[in-house]
Design brief:
alpha/beta, FAD/NAD(P)-binding domain, 3 domains, 25 strands, 26% helix, binds flavin-adenine dinucleotide
Length: 434
């Protein structure tokens, strides 16, 4: 029986623990500085918005851990002594391990803006961030305006959270269209309109210069870099991306890049030390994937894969075809395979784009220009079936095939029948024009 210690009780660490328990009798301890129990980070916004309570975000009852002999410890690990196979906590306690799994997640980026550590300035990542937002912005009387800095998925969620309490929001986005490093132009522009429709003051092509304090050291305004404009506010949300949470590993001898460097088996350079989830960085991205994948389901997959290795069946991490989903206010977004933005698209990638007249539904299909092969699809406001696109990508279908068989992929065929006819006719028109 081995002594397995896991740092981090997010989706990656907890999945590893659950699967190690299914496969073995090893002693398992999960350490976390954040909360006593695992909760769904993706559901944090719904607590602030009043749709659920914190208790509802816990996928397992509190008795689950004891019943499954998974020990939970609330502590911050400040040091890993790999030669001695020992961890040291903030309180100075030493914890020995045979195998160590690092699943320490991410932290919000801060780019050295003057005033970034003032009171009222915060990220939106942890349970502590949620509690802080509740204190900083309980209502529009306490918070007259919030400014959000950084136009990604967490930024738009934070804007939605604050708008749910009628708090005026200004959203500073460095790019000249929302998330256009990832989304093709037609989609990004549709989301710009959708953000503005929600009475969010969207400022594109706009950077933060500094955050100004009041006499008590609280944020009172932000200054816009391009114009020098001073925008009064009580809360500043820093949502300009996340970085792996690895500062405490600096002197551990574990190879670090932006994250914790791992091979395809999720092994670090130090024997018996592994990394999974947001904090893990592949030496080279798998296929077209990025070396660091800060998404929920890949954390789960890495946890499942590593459990096999820990229990004697050394297994390579193979995440399969890329997919993801998110929500931009009222519009659901799904992506299967690869659809790159104009900025990152290659010469052999061609897009077919269809948008509904109501400007809340669209799809973009990516095709290989020479072979006609289907490379991927983005859908907005139309829900599709993951397993169907996954199969078509494996079968290397053409885009012609995919468009003709779209009804098979639809989640709700009756409801979406009308859109398929429109999509097919737009696609046929485009082919005839070409
Ligand atoms: C608001 C929000 C919304 C999101 N929405 C989506 C979504 O819709 N879809 C999606 O795919 N992804 C989403 N994500 C990203 C997704 O939540 C993360 O990719 C995922 O939670 C990462 O899981 P993890 O297990 O790697 O790490 P985490 O969940 O970050 O867990 C790591 C834990 O380790 C603890 N820890 C770190 N260092 C130490 C230490 N030294 N000592 C002790 N404990 C430590 C941390 O406190 C934390 O509790 C969202 C993220 C946020 C913040």
């Amino acid at each position: 029986m081995k002594n397995i210690v896991i740092i981090g009780n997010g989706i990656a660490g907890v999945t590893a623990a659950r699967h190690i328990r299914k496969l073995s009798d090893h002693k398992i301890t999960i350490i976390s500085a954040e909360t006593d129990h695992f909760f769904s980070r993706t559901a944090l916004m719904y607590i602030y918005m009043g749709h659920m309570k914190y208790e509802h975000t816990k996928p397992y009852e509190d008795y689950f851990w004891k019943k499954n002999r998974i020990d939970l410890k609330r502590a911050f690990v400040k040091q890993v002594l790999t030669d001695d196979k020992v961890l040291v906590t903030q309180e100075g306690e030493k914890i020995a391990y045979d195998s160590l799994i690092l699943a320490t997640g991410s932290k919000p980026n801060k780019f050295g803006w003057p005033g970034q550590d003032l009171e009222g300035v915060q990220g939106m990542y942890s349970k502590q961030d949620l509690d802080m937002l509740e204190a900083n912005a309980p209502n529009k009387e306490t918070c007259n305006r919030a400014v959000i800095v950084g136009g990604g998925l967490i930024g738009i969620e934070m804007a939605e959270m604050l708008r749910s309490r009628n708090i005026p929001v200004t959203f500073l986005v460095r790019e000249n269209s929302f998330w256009n490093g990832v989304l093709p132009a037609g989609e990004s522009e549709m989301i710009n309109d959708h953000i503005k429709d929600h009475h969010i003051d969207l400022r594109l092509g706009t950077n933060l210069k500094e955050i100004l304090p009041d006499e008590n050291g609280r944020a009172r305004a932000v200054v816009i870099a391009e114009t020098g404009e001073e925008l009064p506010c009580n809360v500043v949300g820093l949502t300009a991306g996340v970085t792996p949470n690895i500062d405490f590993l600096k002197d551990s001898g574990i190879e670090l890049g932006r994250g914790i460097k791992v091979n395809r088996f999720l092994e670090t350079n130090v024997k018996d030390v592994y990394a999974i989830g947001d904090c893990a960085e592949q030496h080279e991205g798998i296929g077209l994937r990025r070396p660091i994948e800060a998404v929920w389901y890949t954390g789960r997959m890495m946890g499942e894969t590593l459990a096999q290795t820990i229990c004697g069946n050394r297994l390579e991490y193979k995440p399969g075809h890329w997919f993801n989903s998110a929500k931009f206010l009222d519009i659901e977004y799904q992506t299967y395979g690869w659809v790159f933005s104009e900025r990152s698209k290659s010469d052999t990638e061609q897009h077919f784009h269809w948008k509904h007249d109501d400007n809340t539904k669209c799809i973009t299909v990516s095709t290989h220009t020479e072979t006609g092969k289907f490379l991927g699809i983005n859908t907005f406001g139309i829900r599709m079936r993951h397993e169907v696109f996954d199969r078509w990508l494996t079968e290397e279908r053409t885009t012609d095939y995919v468009i003709k068989h779209l009804p098979e992929a639809n989640f709700d065929p009756e409801f979406y029948k009308q859109f398929e006819i429109q999509i097919l006719s737009a696609y046929t028109n485009q082919l005839q024009t070409a």
